[in-house]
From TrEMBL:
Keywords: ATP-binding, Cobalamin biosynthesis, Nucleotide-binding, Transferase
Lineage of origin: Bacteria, Bacillati, Bacillota, Bacilli, Bacillales
Database matches in NCBIfam families: PduO_Nterm (TIGR00636)
Source species of the chain: Paenibacillus residui
One protein family per Pfam: Cob_adeno_trans
Enzymatic class: transferase
Protein name: Corrinoid adenosyltransferase
Annotated ranges, domain Cobalamin adenosyltransferase-like: 3-166
GO molecular function: corrinoid adenosyltransferase activity
InterPro entries: CblAdoTrfase-like, CblAdoTrfase-like_sf, PduO-typ
Family: Belongs to the Cob(I)alamin adenosyltransferase family.
Amino acid sequence: MNIYTRTGDAGQTGVIGGRVDKDNVRVEAYGTVDELNCFVGQAIAVLEEDKFADLRDDLLQIQHELFDCGHDLAVLPRAKREFKLASGLAERLEALIDKYDAETPDISRFVLPGGSQASALLHVCRTVCRRAERRVVTLAKEDQINEDVRIYLNRLSDFFFTVARTVNYRLGVPDVEYIRSAEVFRRKK
């Protein structure tokens, strides 16, 4: 099998159910999800196995779910295909957010991305996830989508924020608060 097909040389690509231009909003949406998946893989690669086994496992599961998101975003409505992303995954992410958030100290101000390399990468994941979500919102205005993808991405960006803080905490690296921020977060109960 050849990796190259030459079928996209004219500026179109195949999606499930037909062909679209490579700059189509659908391609932008699933392409951004694919970009996010690459950054998640990079984050896994820099996380120490012994200190972050639980997080590495969770991130690997998220990579599979992001592939499912990409599949679902590549399905044209006329294709009549079943979606792959399971519903209810946002609730699973909420449980993970609560679990990892319980490890970290309270914050009251915005946090600057960074601290450790792994935390900085997870903040990159957060911002790319937000961009993917914006692309999905745009796509949903034009065409039918799996609504669970949009909900999942919204919750996933919160997950990345939380685990970026957890990584810094486990490494003994303090978060850097944005010094001109008002107090915007409520204390944990």
